[in-house]
Amino acid sequence: MLHIDIITVLPEMLEGFLNYSIVKRAQVKGLAEICLHNLRDYSSDSRHRRVDDYAFGGQAGMVIQCEPVDRAISFLKQQRQYDEVIYTSPDGEQFNQSVANHLSMKQNLIVLCGHYKGIDFRIREHLITREISIGDYVLTGGELAAAVMVDTIVRVIPGVIGDEQSALSDSFQDNLLAPPVYTRPLDYKGWKAPEILLSGHEAKIREWELQQSLERTKQLRPDLMEKIV
């Protein structure tokens, strides 16, 4: 089972997400366990539960302090050993399907959601083992990035999706975009689905799907073609 602890200043943003769809199914099946931790619970300021302060040097924006993050991570590490302590940051490595596949095979992960101007850099130097970005843009907080990562990681755990072939045929699993998909009716307003898909000839269908994937990838994401050996 994959265990993920998410440290955040806004756990409310993630509570609903964890209780629906594939992520909930993974937890119900006992294939994943995802726990939220409010960073404010680890503040030394028991009255105001403050976890941020002004940046040294006069930069605009607030910075998450070392102490509450250190306390939270230290507390969690008393419970189990972690494979990775991940920080969601716009300047981290680019998150992709390969990274998701790799992380899905781990046992214990911590995800620290970035917020405000960021976290005190000393945390990144001494406690974080991996920094991940979901794109070249800045979000108000790392909660959305954490949700994207968790969903992508959890759905490829064997047994989470009933039809495991569905996950294996998703876009980016083999550096190709997925082929087009169709369902009934065969003919809608004169828009017809490809006859090959109803031929029953599995080898020809797979050949058609591969050709479609190659063409779509070349047209829409030519950068991915460079990764195909």
Q: Can you offer a commentary on this structure?
A:
The chain is an alpha/beta fold and 229 residues long. The chain has two domains: 2-154, SPOUT methyltransferase, trefoil knot domain (Alpha/beta knot, 3-Layer(aba) Sandwich), CATH 3.40.1280.10; 171-225, tRNA(m1g37)methyltransferase, domain 2 (Trp Operon Repressor, Chain A). The chain has nine helices and nine strands. It starts with a strand and ends with a helix.
Distance between the termini: 33 Å
Helix and strand pattern:
EHHEEEHEHEHEHHEEHH
> Numbering strands along the chain, what is their spatial order in the largest sheet?
2-1-6-5-7
Helical content stands at 25-40%
Quote the average pLDDT.
Answer: 92
**Annotated CATH homologous superfamily of the largest domain:** SPOUT methyltransferase, trefoil knot domain
What is the CATH-assigned architecture of the largest domain? 3-Layer(aba) Sandwich
CATH fold assignment of the largest domain: Alpha/beta knot
Q: Quick one: overall form?
A: elongated
Range of strand content: 15-25%
The level-1 CATH class of the largest domain = Alpha Beta
Number of helices: 9
Main β sheet profile: 5 strands, parallel
* Topology, number of strands: 9
Low-confidence stretches: none
* Cα-based radius of gyration, to the nearest Å: 22 Å
How many domains, as an integer?
Answer: 2
Structural class by SSE content? alpha/beta
